[in-house]
Amino acid sequence: MDKPLPPFADGLPNLSEGHFEVPGAADLQVQAPFTHAPRFLILYGSLRERSFSRFLAHEAARLLEAMGGEVRIYDAHGLPLPDDTTADHPKVQELRNLSIWSEGHVWVSPERHGNMTGVIKSQIDWLPLSEGSVRPTQGRTLAVMQVSGGSQSFNAVNGLRILGRWMRMITIPNQSSVPMAYKEFDEAGRMKPGPLYDRVVDVCEELVRFTLLTRERASYLVDRYSERKEREPERLKAVAADIGFGKRP
Q1: I need a labelling partner for 111 at 20 to 30 A (CA). Which of 14, 54, 177, 194 fits?
Q2: Average pLDDT for runs of 10 along the chain of length 249
Q3: How many Å apart are CA 13 and CA 10, to the nearest integer?
Q4: Which of 168, 121, 118 is nearest to 142 (CA)?
Q5: Where are the beta strands (DSSP E) in 3-118?
Q6: Distance of alpha carbon 135 from alpha carbon 111, whole angstroms
């Protein structure tokens, strides 16, 4: 049987001690609690006139408002394809400003060809990880939902989860998948009562809780050792030299 290893005493020679921090409970204390309502941005992935993902987005908005949140829903009509124009396009700026305003997101997509739609992916692709010191998605909470024309599936929400992780968001554990969506919404676009609606309530409830838990701590939660090193003036000069904007010191 192997003997227990003693505490490592050979040090961390590759670590920059000036940028290393030991996380502690005290760092999570909130000095000035927010007093405004939690802010949520909802994106949905269909431009159809009768869009079940839009109907589900509206149901989520109603619930989040009833739980004390402030909600904005982005209309993707007129949003150009990623890289088809510059980021100063009005629809792109509208989307980015809404994301910066928000503290949590809800992403709702139909499942098409076994995955999310291009409409929702384009919206997410227009959101950068960072613009200078501004981070439109990092540290924000995220809930994912999908609607399907057929049987129960989780392909779209699984794909949205991957994107949420890539965008460095706090994706909540719960999610909603609505199969045979044409049966779950009435002619007015309201979701019918039942277990699927109850799950949507669960998701919104959990999103609000996670947002209240993390929103004042978001900047601390996404503060990283590697990025603290990169913000050093000498490091920035070296990076600039590597990409042709100056000479190495």
Answers
A1: 194
A2: 68 90 90 94 96 97 98 97 95 96 97 95 94 87 96 94 96 97 96 97 98 93 88 61 47
A3: 8
A4: 168
A5: 39-44, 70-73, 104-110
A6: 28
